[in-house]
Design goal:
The chain is α/β, with parallel strands linked by helices and 712 residues long. 29% of the residues lie in helices and 17% in strands. The chain has a 6-stranded mixed β-sheet, sandwiched between helices. A 5-stranded mixed β-sheet has the order 16-24-23-18-19, with no helix packed on it. A 3-stranded parallel β-sheet has the order 3-5-8. It starts with 6 loop residues before the first helix and ends with a strand.
Length: 712
């Protein structure tokens, strides 16, 4: 039994927390609602900083394993792998925490309350923080989020390994430069069908310890003080029993930007009264005045503190050191060989092959004498890591990975070719100052590997980015700067060419799709990313990633960024063919899905089990993600939606039988009032290694299997 399922133990912690809170003065209570909570020596309470991050590794506190960014891990479509990674993160987190405590270090980013995962829906590719998420699909986001939470929180029956936090609740996905004042207007149907399901899964299935509110308003209410979100939905509908934390300094936005309150006292009163327990920031200092003026009942403040101290007790902070098995984790596990191996495994699982005319895999013994590795991301460490990252002891860039792979057998030439986004690489130079070098590298090379894209200085959180796109959002879907010009010059050289994209979001690489022999989406692949990409390029591993989001052909396919209506957004609602579709990714192996059998042609109370045989018809080991989609056959219903996934790993020539269970809920939809309904009628189930659709079939040459069932 895990602690999250051990209600007797949790109740005991809550009783201890109540007894502790009852001994505090009002000022002491107020102080404990801030993310930097001071010590209360007379009660045996140590200081604690709640603020820590772990999206893809323990962040911002020195050495830690830097796994692929969240969007890359989502491309693995592998819930078991996400759980394994999160368990490793929690192991390193405990190791670092134990070391830091021994040295009396209680600074920011050094606690065990990790404000991860981010399960917001990546509804628009312009959003700078989209790479922190698991993509555009609610089912995939919820499934992977639950696995990540389970890994972070552990399976001990008495203590949490670390505390996870689902963020940012809710209806939050840009624009970044408006987030402090923006009102996301959303229908009840879209709210419940798209923006809430991943959070619901994290609460009900993952038993996540914390939920973080968003900066914006949703339908007029600031999210960190929203009765609708924090009380009616989170607590009352879903039964959430953990603690709620505000986004950082979001509560001052109530009166400074949203203008729904007039003073700091009014703002903290709104937040606390509607269920926000912890303030990332310092505005909750005003709670003392709010309580004294009768704006906030002290009983509500006590409730918040019970929630907070229960969380600290779940982590074992108030028990004997020997009682908690996680206290025995030592620092030598950090950045260990096992961690690096898991990181490489994860990076390999995340890489998506988008196009291949036969140029890949490259053959080291096939007569290639010189390889040109070109582009601003070829030797960039920043392009490996994304944002909210830790510090790796070693980084392997794409260039370094290729150099290590070929050794002295093949000459590797390289050129930056252009700056990532500026018109020149050197400040005093004229524009296109690396173009002549790039052309010469092309002339001397037998094959060109172009490494383009973005990094977290171009897409990320407002305030974290470092150039003219300072909001963090992309202004368009184009390759920035002179990258497109470089691609055109590569094509003019007439040499076989491969494009590696390092980015955390979809780019409209239409030109490369037409003119390059292969296109590979590497995401921000982590500190081992260059090694993983080299292994894919040279065929040591077959690519297995699938797109967790849609690659559009351009902005003309999209509604306004500020429009939160889901019509014509994401694969679930779009009415046109994308450049590369959700769920798509090529392999070097020929993998077939046959003998699709359902245990019933009626979707009743028990749902339906679908069994398929998956065969690897190739001479190399490979993996496939079996995907199950459901389409409700009625007017005005979404396109077929993902409802089941199963990652299958196959040796050469191996066949496996795989079963996917589709519960009855897979055949329901939310109505215009946000009420979940499973209506009687017809549904279509699609099973295969991709989503159904003309574009997927065109790109893969394969069709998914379809069966019609009755819903009762």
């Amino acid at each position: 039994m895990r602690l999250v399922d051990n209600q007797e133990k949790i109740n005991a912690f809550r009783e201890r927390a109540r007894a502790l809170v009852a001994q505090m003065t009002l000022q002491e209570k107020v102080d404990q609602t801030l993310h930097k909570a001071p010590a209360i020596p007379r009660l045996g309470i140590k200081s604690y900083n709640w603020w820590n991050e772990a999206l893809h590794g323990v962040a911002r506190a020195g050495i830690a394993t830097v796994f692929p960014q969240a969007i890359g891990m989502a491309a693995s479509f592998d819930e078991e792998l996400l759980g394994e990674v999160a368990d490793a993160i929690a192991t390193e987190g405990r190791a670092k925490f134990n070391m830091q405590q021994a040295h009396g270090d209680t600074d920011i980013y050094k606690g065990l309350t990790f404000w991860s995962p981010n399960v917001n829906i990546f509804r628009d590719p312009r959003w700078g923080r989209g790479h922190e998420t698991y993509g555009e699909d609610p089912f995939l986001s919820g499934t992977l989020g639950v696995s990540f939470i389970n890994g972070l929180q552990g399976d001990d029956e008495n203590y949490l390994k670390s505390a996870a936090c689902a963020k940012h609740f809710a209806v939050h996905s840009g624009p970044e430069d408006l987030r402090h004042s923006f009102n996301a207007e959303v229908s009840q149907q879209d709210l419940y069908e798209t923006y809430l399901p991943a959070f619901k899964a994290c609460v009900e299935k993952g038993k996540v310890e914390a939920v973080m509110g968003a900066y914006n308003r949703t339908n007029g209410e600031p999210c960190c003080g929203s009765k609708t979100l924090l009380q009616d939905i989170l607590r009352d509908e879903w039964g959430f029993a953990g603690h709620v934390v505000s986004d950082c300094w979001a509560i001052k936005d109530f009166h400074e930007a949203h203008l729904v309150t007039s003073t700091p006292v009014e703002s903290v009163s709104m937040a606390m009264n509607n269920g926000c327990d912890l303030n990332c920031g310092n505005l909750f200092h005003y709670l003392k005045q709010a309580v004294e003026e009768g704006r906030v009942p002290e009983s509500r403040l006590d409730e918040a503190l019970v929630n907070l101290f229960t969380a600290r007790m779940k982590l074992g902070f108030f028990d004997e050191e020997t009682a908690n098995p996680y206290n025995t984790i030592t620092y030598d596990v950090v950045d260990s060989t096992a961690m690096r191996e898991l990181n490489l495994k994860t990076s390999l699982a995340s890489i998506v092959l988008l196009k291949n005319d036969g140029i890949l895999p490259l053959n080291k013994d096939g007569g290639i004498k010189t390889i040109g590795v070109i582009g601003p991301n070829a030797n960039s460490r920043a392009a490996l890591v994304g944002n909210y990252e830790g510090t790796a002891a070693r980084y392997i860039t794409v260039l370094e990975g290729i150099q290590d792979m070929v050794g002295d057998d093949i000459r590797v030439l390289t050129s930056e070719a252009c700056h990532l986004y500026k018109t020149k690489a050197s400040f005093l130079s004229e524009e296109n100052d690396r173009l002549s070098e790039m052309k010469e590298v092309c002339r001397l090379s037998d094959v060109i590997i172009a490494c383009m894209g973005l990094d977290a200085t171009l897409e990320g959180e407002e305030g974290d980015t470092g150039n003219e796109y300072g909001s963090g959002d992309k202004p368009n879907l184009d390759l920035p700067g002179r990258q497109q010009l470089v691609l055109e010059e590569i094509v003019k050289s007439g040499k076989p060419a491969i494009l590696i994209i390092l980015s955390g979001s979809a780019l409209a690489v239409n030109y490369a799709d037409r003119h390059f022999g292969a296109v590979v989406q590497g995401w921000y692949p982590g500190a081992q990313g260059g090694k993983a990409i080299a292994k894919i390029l040279f065929g040591e591993n077959s690519p297995e990633g699938k797109l967790p989001l849609t690659f559009y052909r351009g902005l003309e396919d999209l509604p306004e960024f500020t429009d939160y209506n889901m019509q014509n957004r994401t694969y679930r609602y779009m009415k046109f063919d994308p450049l590369y579709p959700f769920g798509y990714g090529l392999s070097y192996a020929d993998i077939t899905v046959d003998e699709v059998v359902a245990d019933s042609m009626t979707a009743g109370a028990e749902g339906i089990n679908i069994t398929v045989k998956v065969r690897n018809n190739s001479k190399m080991k490979a993996a496939e993600t079996i995907q199950a989609y459901v389409k409700i056959v009625r007017e005005d219903t979404p396109n077929a939606q993902l409802k089941g996934i199963k990652k299958v790993r196959l040796e050469a020539g191996e066949e496996k039988e795989v079963t996917i269970h589709l519960p009855r809920e897979s055949f329901g939809l939310y109505d215009v009032n946000g009420v979940f309904v499973v209506d009687s009628g017809e549904a279509e189930i699609y099973i295969g290694g991709q989503a159904p659709g003309r574009r997927s079939e065109e790109l893969t040459g394969k069709k998914v299997r379809v069966m019609k069932v009755n819903v009762v």
